[in-house]
Write a structure and sequence with these properties.
membrane, mainly alpha, transmembrane, 4 helices, 71% helix, 102 residues, transmembrane helix
Length: 102
């Protein structure tokens, strides 16, 4: 496995840990904090969208569905997006510093 995959794999392991921790936390709102911190770049976009739309609830977590399903709908696509971004960034760095072949 190339080094460029390592950050994405480590992040996905961290995301899995955050999800397991969330599943064992009480449904009091503090469990959400770990998920939102684990996906901080997407959370920042969600906060901006929530503010711009004038909503009171976080717009990226759907309402009207089961608590865990709603959080899974937000968390796993956000985690995969971040892991993909890490992979893209590391691939770019790898190409940038690759030895030039003549």
């Amino acid at each position: 496995m190339s080094w460029k995959y390592v950050p994405s794999v480590l992040y996905l392991a961290f995301a899995l840990f955050a999800w397991i921790d969330f599943m064992h936390a009480a449904q009091d709102g503090l469990g959400n904090l770990g998920l939102l911190l684990a996906t901080l770049p997407v959370t920042a976009v969600g906060v901006i969208l929530t503010s711009a739309l004038g909503k009171t609830g976080f717009v990226l977590i759907p309402s009207g569905v089961d608590y865990y399903i709603a959080h899974a709908i937000y968390f796993w696509p956000a985690a995969l997006l971040i892991a993909g971004g890490l992979l893209g960034f590391c691939s770019w760095i790898s190409r940038l510093f690759a030895p030039k072949v003549k």
